[in-house]
Amino acid sequence: MSTAPQSEAKHNLQSDDVRSGGCLCGAVRYEAKAPLRAVVACHCVQCRKTSGHYAAMTSVPLERFVLTHDDCLAWFRSSEKAERGFCRLCGSNLFWKPAGEGRISITAGTLDGPTGLCIERHIYCDYAGDYYAIAEAVPQLPEH
Length: 144
Fold this sequence. Notes:
This is CENP-V/GFA domain-containing protein. Keywords: Lyase, Metal-binding, Zinc. Residues 19-133 form the CENP-V/GFA domain. InterPro entries: CENP-V/GFA (IPR006913), Mss4-like_sf (IPR011057). By secondary structure, the protein is mainly β. The protein has one domain: Metal Binding Protein, Guanine Nucleotide Exchange Factor, Chain A, CATH 2.170.150.70. 9% of the residues lie in helices and 35% in strands. It has a seven-stranded mixed β-sheet with strand order 6-7-8-9-4-3-10. The radius of gyration is 15 Å and the shape is globular. The termini are far apart.
C-alpha cells in the first residue's frame, strides 16, 4: 500500500514511467523519467509575459530529465533566480529552471498525450490578469 497522499498518487505517474513532450514544431523534444508533480498555475508577470496567459507547470528532478532533441532550444535568464527554455524556431515556451534547486519545471501543455495531471494550486494570484477569473476550487495564493 502506498504512503503517498491520495491526490499525489492519483496525479503522479509510476516511477518507471517515461513521459515525453516537445515544442510545436518538434525541434525540441524531451523525456521525464520520474513521477511528475501536480500542475502549479503561476500568474506572476514573467509567466504571463512568456505564456500569454498564466503558466501551467509540472516538474521533475533535473537528473531525471533528458533532452532528446535540442538543436533549437534557447535559454533566457529571466531573473537572477531562474532561466526559461523555449524553441527558437517555433517560439514554444517549454521550461522554467530555478537556480540551484535541482528541478526543472515543464510547461504542462507540451507533454504528449493525456497527462493524468491536474492543477493543485494557483500562485502569484495578486498578479493575475484582469481579464479572467480563477475558477478551480484549489488553493489560490497571493504569492508563492
